Amino acid sequence: MHDIILGKRTESYLVIKAFIEKNRGKRIFLEHEVKMLLKNMGLTVPHSIFIRKDEPISAHGLNYPLVVKVSSTAIASKSDVHGIRIGINSANDLKKSVEDLRQIENAEGVLIEETAPAGVEVIVGGVTDKQFGPIVMFGLGGIFVELFKDIAFGLAPMTEGEAQRLIRQVKGYRLLEEYRGRPPIDIQALLRVILAVADIMSSGLISEIDLNPVILYATGAVVLDAKMSL
Hints:
single chain, 230 residues, alpha+beta, D-amino Acid Aminotransferase, Chain A, domain 1, Dna Ligase, domain 1, 2 domains, globular
């Protein structure tokens, strides 16, 4: 088992290193770039198309309704600049939304994604602390993190057992189990997300990553937004 864990961490390290080599010179990455790394590490992200400011508008191969988001390494919060459009149901709506978002200051392009079904929102992140080293954070999304600060922290690298204990530390853990007739979420899918973030942080190549939100379902999990920097 120990050899299997080491093998997975080595594989993750090589994927992360290859990603950084491909994006040499960058310190902050665009959302679609981070999601490509996560996808290469076995996580699920929405089907999407990234369009730069000077490229023609196309959602070929994507299914409506769509979400359109401004993309820029200089924009810390898309919401603060009104950089998100949801419920896009036609080519005309798509064209107008993309054109609007391209006008936002510092916009480098737009990310067009298929809309993910509703589920349980959580946040998974990581940061390098000066005292403790690489740390992984987990919390329930929405009101739980905004008002109740319901989050838990653990050290990376992390075993599956340690990731399970991290999940159980949050006060809202009960919402991840069967609750009021709703089936329990896919804990294994959530563990894969947490362990991927732990591998990213323990690689020593990344200073910070923020996956917010991650949507959990009875089967599977989807990373809806992602930020990462060296």
